[in-house]
Amino acid sequence: MRSAPTPPRFAQRLLRWFCAPHRLDELEGDLDELFQDRIKSVGVHRARWRYWRDVLSLMRPFVIRRQHTDYPSPTHTTMIRNYLTVAFRNLARAKSYAFINIAGLSVGMAASALIALWIQSELTYDQFYSKTDRLFQVYNRDTFNGTTQAWETTPRPLAPALKQDYPDIDDASRYRPITFVLTANDKNVNIDGAFADPTFLNLFDFPFLTGNAQASLSEPNGIVITKSLAESLFGTTQALGKIIQVDHKDSFSVTGVLDDLPDNSRFSSISYLLPYNYFISLGWGSDDWSSNNEYTFVLLKDKVDPAMAENKIKRVTAQHLKGVLDDVSHRHIFLHPASKWHLYSKQDNGQLVDGKIVTVRLFGIIAAFILLIAAVNFINLSTARSEKRAKEVGIRKVAGAQKRSLVFQFISESVLLAFFAGLLALLLIVLCIPLFNTITGKQLSLAFGSVSFWLAAPGFVLFTGLLAGSYPAFYLASFQPIRVMKGTYQPVAAVFSPRKGLVVAQFTFTIVLIIATLVIRQQIHHAQNRESGYDQNNLLFAYLHGDLPSHYEALQQDLLRSGAAVSVGRSLGPLTDINSRQWGVSWPGSTKADKDIEFDRFGTDTDFLTTMGTKLTAGRALDVRQFPTDSNAVMLNETAVKTMHLKNPVGTSIRFLKQDWQVVGVLKDFVFASPYDPINPVIVSGPGQSVSLGWTSMRLNPANATAKNLEVIEAVFKKYNPGYPFEYTFADESYKAKFADEQRVGVLTSLFSGLSIFIACLGLFGLAAYTAQQRTKEIGIRKTLGASVASIVQLLTKEFIYLTLAAFLIGAPIGWYAMHRWLEDYTYRITIGIDVFTVTLLSAILIVLLTVSFQAIKAALVNPVKSLRSE
Amino acid sequence: MKGTYLGEFEEVVLLAVAIRDGDAYGAAVVNEIEQQMGRSVNLGAVHSALHRLQEKGLVKSEMGGISPERGGRRKRLYSVTAYGRRVLEEVRQLRNQMWDAIPRTAWS
User: Fold this and answer.
1) CA pair distance A221, A786, nearest whole angstrom
2) In this predicted structure, what is the pLDDT of residue B1?
3) Between the CA of residue A341 and those of A124, A136, A267, A773, what are the distances in Å?
4) For the ABC3 transporter permease C-terminal domain, which residue ranges apply (chain A) (predicted)?
5) CA A190 – CA A181 distance, rounded (Å)
6) Cβ atoms of residues A861 and A789 within 8 Å
């Protein structure tokens, strides 16, 4: 027997969902009756169909609207509404506390969010290629003189050999950065780029605007350029097939236009790619396995264990160098994964241990602490003012509230506060991001369009609310109604209250930051004041582009005759950079191990001393014009003489590059590399051997204005080399640039310590105000009994000073240890003196006094008649 | 019509309520209209019209007793109020008046 047909179940359920309860009965009845009628008249199928139509037609406001009733039916939302009302009333009643809490929290949130953005950008470096997890850079490792070193340049034949001989390696590419003058439409730009194998674009899938990855670098005269270079050369990104002249020699046609490379790529500074084969055809570099000048990138096959692959290839270079080098037993190559390129680039004893990751961790800790300081403010003020809420808690408990619901209430209150603070923080971030970007040299922004932002922002607010609100919530919710309602409730004044502990923690962190700021400043100052050993003012370096080397003599004469330069010389490179390194030097009395000693090599032809302003301590200056044999002569610096243990250096003959060099003079040590490092042994050689002196160094005429000098020099350069823009670097500027990293850290640390002082003081201000208010009566009585204003101020501030002292006792050793570790990275460094701690302690006490005494004095000046009359 | 505008469908529903004197509820009105006019109407449209009529004061409603044929569900019974009756009459009168005003020659 078939059961009676039923109306569509889903339609019924829909109706029950949207229909107001008081109308449901009647409507279902109507629907049912019609359904039964229609089965008889039009059949089951049509009846069900009509049922559906009727249900849908009933979705109208008058059906959906719930019946109004005068009796409340409490739901969860009702209670939450009550919590919000109470929260708003509390905020409105104590506006200054609300302000302190919201201000502190928002500054803390903004600061830690900015740091989080920075950390995120650091962590995503080189992580966005589609094959990131299979990409590696090949590093060299060897042991010299007992110390193991790792370096990132490799021999030219390595990449092809790896790809050919090892099945684990999917692809490999060589890479060599370069700076060329590019010319198109009579426009010259001197800009950074690189030579790379065609496979490079298979390894790194940079998005192409036009052209394709496979073909663009395989053509012998194809060039791939970025969008911004295309725009600056041609004014359009539609540059495919257009001609660019490279270094005023060879013409290349554009075979691809890349979108601009992302900032968080290690290749972000390059603007074009040229075929690596063109580099080979220029005859630069060498095919020897012993010359390490190329970068090698490899792509491993899918599911190949990098450690296994590394194990197979690690002896490749050693095998080829057998017989070329004396000892290849320690020569290895190893793979450095793409995800670690940016953060782990510092080598220590042949291992790439850390690098930027240290700063990332440090800033992470700072961010966490700043947020914590802001949260502590909230915790302290809420627990201190708990008395104000005690009655409310009592009443709620008597009315039947569970502890759980009270905890929920107070936490939702703090989340609400965190929400307001978050809105303010958002505003602060938007306002401060340009400044922060200038300091950090990044391009950070808030990704309002991304899902992750809208997940992260509420998550952050919730986290802050929980962090700040959990403890006060449990503290408040655990009040016993009997005690608070009788009015005998007094907060326990324990010797060690959690509140005091938290204030100490806040100030400990602040004191550590103050110490760090002072030490970093001293260290930078120390290095800046280091005697550089040469005259940095008015010293200019320029590369000899194009035709300049062949016209050098005339150029030099013109420069001197123009009066813009007082001295001009050729050199291997600017004095402020390391030009070249030299191993395998031998001298009378040197041992075999001495061949591993690394000398920094500079070159000159003449006028080295007058141009650079270095001092001579023995012998004479190298001068090719006066003494033609000086082509094969060298000058040493004092450190080199010491390293070589030479008694009478002048006149000694030393040997490197298969040739003897006569020592003609000894130079006073000068600082050319990092101002924090010890001075290396230096050889300044004449122009006798292969390496060409491609740069010129000029000492400008101090009698003229610098702008005038530059104008004249540019004219002279243009005369001999019209096709190239005149580009130069100043010695003092590039020397200053060496402090940029430390200065950046210094600025950030002082910024953050300033912020944490501000937030901590906000909290202290609130606490002091509350204590003063609590003790109004006591102060009144004391004053009537003859207490002076000073003694009352002392009474109110004493406790905070003790807390500061306690914080200093904890913070000073931590700060000393942390900064001691930081300084260990620098050879030329300060020792942390007692002055740092004195200044820290005094400034901390001064800040605390200023914050607290305002409230204390205000309280002490009140007329006791007023404070005692009101009851 | 003294400020009360009666839509065409509302007029039909009001008439149907009047026809089912004492036994006018949603489903009954639907059936009545469908029989009288031979067109299908939605229950939602009828209830909506009844709701509006009640708001205008043309009908009143009360909950009826439990009847077994509806599975124990109650009916909301509508009846025409005095005001509703007067409005209907006015409508009819107006129509008649207009019919009478048609000249005899118009149809020939």
Assistant:
1) 96
2) 43
3) 11, 9, 11, 57
4) 365-481, 751-859
5) 4
6) yes
Chain B residue at shortest CA distance from A31: B27
Contacts of A58 in chain B (CB under 8 A): 43-44, 47
Q: What number is the ipTM of this complex?
A: 0.89
CA distance A509 to A373: 9
For residue range A43-75, what is the model confidence (pLDDT) as tens digits? 889 999 999 999 999 988 888 888 777 666 666
Tokens of A709: 């000098």
Is B74 close to A29, i.e. CB distance below 8 A? yes
Provide CB contacts within 8 A for B24, sequence distance 6+: B16, B17, B18, B32, B77, B78, B79
If one counts every other C-beta atom within 10 angstroms of the C-beta of residue A305, the result is 10
Q: Look at residue A618 and give its three-state secondary structure.
A: strand
* Residue that has been written with the tokens 């009628």 in this structure: A37
Cβ contact (<8 Å) for A60 and B75?
no
Question: Inter-chain contact B30–A25, Cβ cutoff 8 Å?
Answer: no
Q: Where are the beta strands (DSSP E) in chain B?
A: 59-66, 74-80
Domain CATH number, residue B55:
1.10.10.10
Residue B3, in any domain of the structure: no
- Residue A108's pLDDT band, with cuts at 50, 70 and 90, is very high
Q: Which two tokens stand for residue A772?
A: 């003063």
Range of the domain at B71: 8-97
The whole-model pTM stands at 0.73
In a domain, B53, yes or no: yes
The residue whose two tokens read 């050098």 is A552
The half-sphere exposure of A782 on its side-chain side, counting CA atoms within 13 A, is 19
Contact call for residues A729 and A666 (beta carbons, < 8 A)? no
Inside any domain, residue B30: yes
DSSP string, A805-857: HHHHHHHHHHHHHHHHHHHTT-SS-----HHHHHHHHHHHHHHHHHHHHHHHH
Q: How many domains does chain B have?
A: 1
Q: How does pLDDT run across A214-228, given as a tens digit for each residue?
A: 777 888 888 999 999
